[in-house]
Amino acid sequence: MSPAPHTPGHPAPAELVSTVAELRHARVRHAAAPGATAVVMTMGALHEGHATLVRAARERVGPDGSVIVTVFVNPLQFGAGEDLDRYPRTLKADLELASEAGAGIVFAPAADEVYPGGQPQVRITAGPMGELLEGASRPGHFDGVLTVVAKLLHLTQPDLAFFGQKDAQQLAVIRRMAKDLNFPVEIVGVPTVRETDGLALSSRNRYLSAEERRTALALSRALFAGRDRLAAQEALRARADALPGAQDRAGQRAEALTRLGEARAAADVHAVAQAAEGGAAGAVRAAARAVLDEAAAAEPPLVLDYLALVDPADFTEAGDAHRGEAILAVAGRVGTTRLIDNIPLTFGDPEGTTQGAAK
User: Which of 66, 273, 323, 347 is deepest in the core (most CB within 10 A)?
Assistant: First the structure.
């Protein structure tokens, strides 16, 4: 399908294609441009988070590059009892948003176009990382994700592929697949986009009632509480380390802080001890869990699936003495809607900056 004429001053409408053959022909036409090709893979119901990915892709490849957006509700990544049939399909609106954000091609195939022989017998397995957290809650989910991502990478043949960091574990397993299987593509992560109240943008937010949304906000508040606790821990540790004669034991540090008039810090001997011994991870988890426990008693309640502080390399749990990059991740259900969220953290603050950037 050829793109429609566009109004001067507005982005050209993206070319909508629905078959592999149409995609191949569209790629040939767009390949005449000298720039790189980027892909943004979605399941449709596009929102500002997706638009941010498309804009990032367009900025990276420039005006001469090609940006392909895929819109495909992948049945392989929905488990029994999950919302495949309920998942919103809004192709007309998706095409408009993708066009406005800078896409040149929108590939929106039917399931039998992507899986012409029915569900594939040969699939990509996510391995140990795919069995943790989201993988434990949704067995086989990441195998379905990687299988369709691999197929779409072959079909679109991009130089770069853009994914949101909101789905941090998905981003991690895709990066690992690209590395392990030598896909000639750069996997680019784009920071999470949030609504004004802090809730991470998701196609599933539309399912929440006003009351459910109030409860769901505990997910992002818990992450921010953990982040702010880490900022306090790191600042306290740095302050304690800088005090004369207070380099050996947490008790000595508390006494030194008292001498400086830091009554609140000195009273929190437990926090000082954690800062001294590298146990800030426990404080981060505790701060986040306190918010989630309160939400569990709300009406309607938040039913927590998991709260985890993990190493982004393999999504194993970060130990109490963890230093370096980490991800604080949470998942829970409010009513019938399951939501996930996460934020990146840095333990040890190697750049000399503090955690606690604007939400």
Answer: 66
